[in-house]
UniProtKB/TrEMBL annotation:
<dbReference type="GO" id="GO:0034501">
    <property type="term" value="P:protein localization to kinetochore"/>
</dbReference>
<dbReference type="GO" id="GO:0000776">
    <property type="term" value="C:kinetochore"/>
</dbReference>
<feature type="domain" description="Kinetochore protein Sos7 coiled-coil">
    <location>
        <begin position="63"/>
        <end position="137"/>
    </location>
</feature>
<feature type="coiled-coil region">
    <location>
        <begin position="98"/>
        <end position="167"/>
    </location>
</feature>
<feature type="region of interest" description="Disordered">
    <location>
        <begin position="230"/>
        <end position="250"/>
    </location>
</feature>
<protein>
    <recommendedName>
        <fullName>Kinetochore protein Sos7 coiled-coil domain-containing protein</fullName>
    </recommendedName>
</protein>
<dbReference type="Pfam" id="PF20882">
    <property type="entry name" value="Sos7"/>
</dbReference>
<dbReference type="InterPro" id="IPR037475">
    <property type="entry name" value="Sos7"/>
</dbReference>
<keyword id="KW-0175">Coiled coil</keyword>
<dbReference type="InterPro" id="IPR048781">
    <property type="entry name" value="Sos7_CC"/>
</dbReference>
<dbReference type="GO" id="GO:0051315">
    <property type="term" value="P:attachment of mitotic spindle microtubules to kinetochore"/>
</dbReference>
Length: 274
């Protein structure tokens, strides 16, 4: 069954009301059905009956039935009293019969009170269930209205998608820009993971910067004497070159020292057989 057929079936379901459901119970015979008041008949035929209207009708009927019960009891009491007075011979009731009747009335009143309590509990449960059903019915009506509007919205969205597809720019040469939704999300997740890894590496490198700076400072401190020695050696070499160019190279002290050191090195190598 498609969506249109389901909506059509929902729309053709007859709307039920509490009075429609209670009518066969309250009026089992057709003769009693003809005695219903016009207000009740009109209320049962209304399709837009609300819980507030039903509560008002219930309060009205409860007040009416209370008055009818009082009138009935009064009328029956008067009738029995007149029948007892006007009968021949008159009916006389003894005190023992009155006492017995009083005890029976007490028992009947206690049973009636218990029945009333049970009835009140049952009415409370029915009211709670009725409110729950009313809320569910309202939700179903709202959802039905939304479902009725859904095909038109889907058609409008499809037209919008077609228009946007027709107006979109030419496909890019980059295949990453033409991926479907799920591959695009996967690609984006991979890029975000790579960025996260790079951020972690950057954080580690930033944490190692102070130690590296201390190491560089130590190396600079160690390099300073070497630089001084280098500069001194360069100056000595330049001075030796200048002396050699001036003709004092044969008796130069440094050259003699170098020859001596080379001779010593050669002798040591021969001795050590290196």
């Amino acid at each position: 069954m498609d969506a249109d057929a389901a909506l059509t079936e929902l729309q053709h379901i007859n709307q039920l009301t509490i009075l429609d459901l209670a009518y066969p119970i309250l009026n089992p015979s057709s003769s009693s059905a003809t005695k219903r008041t016009s207000g009740v008949s009109d209320a049962s035929n209304q399709a837009n009956i609300t819980p507030a209207l039903l509560a008002a009708d219930l309060a009205h009927y409860r007040d009416l039935f209370s008055k009818l019960r009082f009138s009935y009891v009064e009328q029956v009491t008067k009738e029995r009293l007149l029948r007892a007075i006007t009968s021949d011979p008159p009916e006389f009731v003894e005190s023992s019969a009155n006492a017995e009747l009083g005890e029976k009335l007490k028992v009947d009143k206690a049973a009636l009170k218990e029945k009333k309590e049970e009835l009140q509990t049952l009415i409370g449960e029915l009211e709670a269930q009725g409110r729950s059903l009313a809320n569910r019915y309202e939700n179903i009506q709202l959802q039905s209205a939304q479902l009725e509007a859904l095909p038109a919205e889907i058609e409008h969205l499809q037209e919008t998608i077609s228009t946007l597809q027709a107006q979109q720019e030419p496909t890019s040469s980059n295949p990453a820009l033409s991926l479907p939704l799920q591959p695009t999300l996967d690609f984006l997740a991979d890029r975000e993971q790579q960025l996260s890894d790079l951020d972690h590496q950057i954080a580690l490198l930033r944490a190692a910067i102070p130690a590296k700076r201390n190491e560089v400072e130590n190396l600079k401190d160690e390099l300073a004497p070497l630089q001084m020695r280098k500069m001194k050696s360069v100056q000595e070499a330049q001075e030796a070159r200048r002396r050699r160019q001036d003709g004092a190279g044969i008796g130069d002290e440094l050259e003699e020292r170098g020859r001596w050191l080379r001779g010593v090195e050669t002798g040591l190598r021969r001795m050590l057989e290196v």
